[in-house]
What we know:
alpha+beta; Beta-galactosidase, Chain A, domain 5
Amino acid sequence: MDNQRLIIWSFFGFMCILTYQAWNLDLTQNEVVERAREVNELRFETTPKVDNNLPTLNQTRDNERSPVLENNNFSSDIITITTDVLELKINSQGGTIEGAKLLNYPKSKDQPNDVIELLSPNPKDLGLIQTGLRSLKGAPEPNHLATYSSDSKNYELTNQAELIVPLYWTDDNGITLEKQFRLSKGSYRVDIEHRLTNNTNQDWRGASYSQITRRITSKDRSMFDVESFSFDGPIIFNGDKSEKIDPSDLNDDGPTEFVSPNGWIGSIQHHFLSAIVPEKEIEQRYQVSANNARVISNMIGPTEIVYPNQTKTFSTTAYIGPKLQAQMNAIDPKLRLSVDYGILTVLSQPLFWLLNFVYSFVENWGLAIISVTAIIKLLFYKLTEKSGQSMAKMRAIAPRLKAIQERYKDNKTEQGKATMELYKREKVNPMAGCVPMLIQMPFFLAFYWVLLESVEMRQAPFMFWLTDLSSRDPYFILPLIMGVAMLFQQKLNPPPADPMQAKVMQIMPVMFSGMFAFFPSGLVLYWVTNTLLSILQQWSINKKYSA
Length: 547
């Protein structure tokens, strides 16, 4: 095996991995939608009924079970909360978050006013975050079916650093509850508190719960849209590891359940996340189930006691926004696992950190990619230099190799023996040129996932015609530059000994240009930069050895 053959097989393997991942994701999501249709052709009203979605209480302190509530009335009173980054819609029935628009994230750069909507009552894009309390002994409870009152229908964060939106609920016996939503400037964090006051002469027993109700959807796959192959569905963290859940598995195997004091639940929409993180070190019981055309992920805590004339606060945190790792890390370091870099996280995470660090100085993601590529190239300079020296020696002895092939063209054994003697005499190691490629491919794959998964790259401009580094080059200029650079790079390297292999290498720049034409332009920019730096390095080494 030589360097050229390794290049071909490495890239072939890489493309096989990407093709398999795309095919597998497409197949499983089609199965999800098909099974959902087989179960029921669900028809929603203007607002979906959610009366069957109440989690049961955790029986840790009381053996009595709470009843299953039936309530088909759904309030139409909507409370609007607006910050500098979020617009939330809160339904007065249950204080359910049934709308969330990300004001700084348009669906496309051509339509800046049409922004990403993570939560919605629309059946085709259904998304709800429901929170409340369950009580024992059949007492009225402030769950997501109860009706709340509010002081206003519109709240806006203006000059203040924090906005608190209160909702109120009371029953006929003297149990009162204030439900607060707390938001701050520039943040996608929503702190939710249930402050229950027991004004009766009896103990109140119950538990807090939270749940995300989300639709199951399918996507039309397109090689022109990398985002169409991204995961869209529920994700959990069970205290040890995060896991994306295929809704079809829930239909086949039943609900996913676990108990953890440090877990969370969420729903991914490529670069965006809706998640609920409970208070730490309080054991929660989790369940993720599929219900017709939607997935319900919920959690419920242990039964608590509120004695007469006492008040207790139940707290939880929701994150509704882009997968900004700094903000997620401030809520829970494990929430950052929703940014899935796959098996190369050990490389992708440092690469992203380095990119983010460089960006803080250059303030341009394209320049940050070029700078990080140069840093990586410098880091492996000595190793690449040894490889370049080996290739320069191979280029120098190429005429003698060709003469050996002509002399022993009918005797492969003697040809191989003479070739190895020449390598030994000239102190040439043909395998030395393979090492940098073996090192470079994992970085290439890691960079691919960084550019694909990091929301910071979404719609990030570089310069001129490159207005979105997470999508393909609209005019295919970068792939063409890459093809020309690869062709020039081949001229600096020793020609393959095998004529058939030489022909394959000649068409490789064309093949690479065609394949890279549909990759994110940020990734092509990385490869072009790396190729140009390799050309400069190899040209310098060749000049040195030719002298």
